[in-house]
Structures are given as C-alpha cells and as structure tokens.
Amino acid sequence: MKKYLATGLLALSAALMAGAVAAQEFRGKHGTRINPVNAAVFEVVAKSSSRGADFWCGAADYARRSLGYGWKDRVYVARAMGPSVTTNRRSAVHFTMDPAAAGITPGGSSNSINRFTVGDSMSIQHANTYCTMPPTRF
C-alpha cells in the first residue's frame, strides 16, 4: 500500500512540476514578461518606466517566437494599459492575434506607440522595429 501511495505521490509531483514549467512566463526583449491571460489574449508586462515601444516589442517578440506567427500577421490591442492580471505590476497591456476570439472589433493601425486603444493593431514586422530601439534607461 505504501509503495503505491509513494509512486502515486511521485507521479503527481512530477505532473505538477511539469505544469509549473509550462505555465512560466515568456521573457521578451527589453525585459518584458509575457503571460497568457486566456486562449486568445496575452499580457505584456514591461519594466517600470517603460515606453510604449517596449510593449509593442514584447507583443511582436512573443507572437513570433512563442506563437509562430509571420511578419505580416497583425497584433491587436485587446485591453488598454492597466493593472496586470497575471502579476502584481501596475502597468500591462493585453494583446491578441485573433480579435474575434478576444471579443474586440479591429480598428485601424496604431497611430501612436504610447496610446493603446482597443482594436488598434500593427503588423508584427512593424511592432518588431521597436525592439531595435535602445531599451529604457533607469
């Protein structure tokens, strides 16, 4: 009985550790952290005093390297800047690759990298250009 209990606990422990590794945040360029909010939305959390460019860069980096989207695909703002729902940070922006699944109406191209209007979008290629800017200095 003890042998089966120990084996079961070991298997449960391994499964929990594997789940924890799978749920770890994605580390993007310029110190951004990206976490899934749900199946359609991901949250970009930047360092304090970050610029809008850092959020767009993080979204592009995640869409390319983690989700596998192409340069011409568009990334959309799903929620304007506000408190993070996946961390204790005060500033985060939600993005999506699928506006219909996220329940938002696509708008035009973003005219400002610092204003995050729901539905605004950029191509991943355009958003990625902000990754080449020097990171924010503290």
Word description of this protein:
With 138 residues, the chain is α+β, with helices and mostly antiparallel strands. The protein has one domain. The chain is built from four helices and six strands. Strands 1-2-3-5-4-6 form a six-stranded antiparallel beta sheet. A hairpin with a 5-residue loop joins strand 1 (26-27) and strand 2 (33-36). The N and C termini lie far apart (58 Å). Residues 2-22 have low confidence and may be disordered.
Give me the secondary-structure topology.
Layout lengths: L1 H21 L3 E2 L5 E4 L4 E5 L6 H14 L8 E9 L9 E5 L2 H4 L18 E3 H5 L10
Antiparallel strand pairs: 1-2, 2-3, 3-5, 4-5, 4-6
What's the helix-strand series? HEEEHEEHEH
**E-strand count:** 6
Main beta sheet, described? 6 strands, antiparallel
The percentage of residues in β strands lies in: 15-25%
What separation lies between the terminal Cα atoms?
Answer: 58 Å
* Helical/strand content category: alpha+beta
Q: How many domains make up the coordinates? A: 1
Global Rg: 18 Å
Low-confidence stretches: 2-22
Mean pLDDT: 81
Helical fraction: 25-40%
- The total of helices stands at 4
What coarse outline follows from CA principal-axis ratios? globular
> Strand arrangement, largest sheet?
1-2-3-5-4-6
Brief digest:
With 138 residues, the protein is α+β, with helices and mostly antiparallel strands. Helix content is 32%, strand content 20%. Strands 1-2-3-5-4-6 form a 6-stranded antiparallel beta sheet.
List the keywords.
6 strands; disordered N terminus; globular; alpha+beta; about 140 residues; about 20% strand
